[in-house]
Design goal:
This is Diguanylate cyclase. This protein is of the alpha/beta class and 291 residues long. The chain contains 13 helices and 9 strands. It binds ligand C2E and magnesium ion (3 copies).
């Protein structure tokens, strides 16, 4: 480059935009390093049956255990991992870790419950998610019923051949599919039926307004009825208050997840929850007066 060019570059390097690009690159590099050195831990959030209070499953939620900054939540790094492609390696770590945990529980004679794993659209774009799950099932000799996959509406609505095929293959293995964050995307209801999902997770945005917004009550009621008609299971996400839980019981939503039941916890604490087995007071709300 000519001298003039270099001068231009020099100015650019000093400028604020450059600093921002630089720190973005640093952050990306740090994330890549963190993945290579396995600074991640999978935490587990249980879900429970609203009638018996019994634990029904766990959701695997990744955490970055940063040596200096401490525990970092996914909202601070998942988007970057997706845009740089490092989500593929991170996703592999998560899957590996879940299988390892289940195998450990199994070998210790614990009563097992299914664990659901979040899969990003970019992981399916990259491809091979079906093969990855298949080989882990074989490697760990794991019952496919113990593994579940959480996909968002955008993935479910995708018509990309490779994505449709991976999803169909995962389903064929006997792995249940959850439609995560239901109600926040733009699902077509007809596609819902085609796709053979087993579980709908109602997004926290609806759950949080239950019992205080008539509109939210009607929406959740409608989603529950629709799920029943389609023979799908339903899980309400983000249940934080007894009021919300009562409303969900009235609406016959049979599974709940949220801080009211338990926050996502370390593997060690998850083992304790597994042994505790009953996570909710099974007391029913007041019986509904006859119509
Ligand atoms: P998600 O799959 O919808 O997970 C639920 C999120 O809501 C979790 O946040 C969970 O901690 C939080 N949550 C649960 N109950 C409550 C509640 O009662 N109140 C409130 N306010 N929040 C609650 P988290 O762990 O920060 O994860 C955020 C998102 O990051 C997840 O949303 C998921 O989309 C993504 N994610 C997490 N782990 C992974 C992973 O291993 N792979 C991929 N691809 N994505 C992941
Ligand atoms: Mg999820
Ligand atoms: Mg969700
Ligand atoms: Mg979400």
């Amino acid at each position: 480059a000519s001298k003039a060019d270099k001068k231009g570059l020099f100015r650019f390097y000093n400028d604020e935009l450059y600093q921002r690009i630089r720190s973005k690159l640093d952050a990306e590099e740090e994330l890549a390093h963190a993945i290579a050195s396995r600074q991640f831990e999978v935490h587990y959030q249980p879900r429970a049956d609203t009638r018996s209070g019994e634990i029904r499953g766990f959701e695997a939620l990744v955490r970055w255990m940063h040596p200096v900054r401490g525990m970092i939540l996914p909202s601070h790094f998942i988007a970057m991992a997706e845009s740089t492609g490092s989500i593929v390696a991170l996703g592999s770590l998560v899957m590996q870790s879940v299988f390892e945990q289940l195998a450990q529980w199994r070998d210790a004679g614990e009563t097992l419950v299914p664990v659901s794993i979040n899969i990003s659209p970019s992981q399916l774009d990259a491809g091979g998610v079906d093969h990855q799950i298949q080989s882990l099932l074989e490697q760990y000799d794991m019952q496919p019923e113990l593994i579940e996959v959480e996909l968002t509406e955008s993935v479910m609505m995708s018509e990309a051949e490779s994505i449709v095929e991976q999803i169909a293959n995962i389903r064929k293995m006997g792995v249940k599919l959850h439609l995560d964050d239901f109600g926040t995307g733009y699902s077509s209801l007809s596609r819902l039926q085609e796709i053979d999902m087993q579980v709908i997770k109602i997004d926290r945005a609806f759950v949080s307004r239950l019992g205080t917004s008539n509109q939210a009550d009607v929406l959740v009621k409608t989603i529950v009825l629709m799920a029943k008609e389609l023979h799908m299971e339903i899980i309400a996400e983000g249940v934080e208050t007894p009021l919300q839980l009562d409303a969900l019981r009235h609406l016959e939503c049979n599974e709940v997840q949220g801080y009211l039941i338990a926050r996502p916890v370390s593997p060690k604490e998850a083992t304790a929850l597994l042994r505790q087995r009953f996570l909710l007071d099974a007391s029913k709300p007041e019986a509904e007066p006859p119509a």
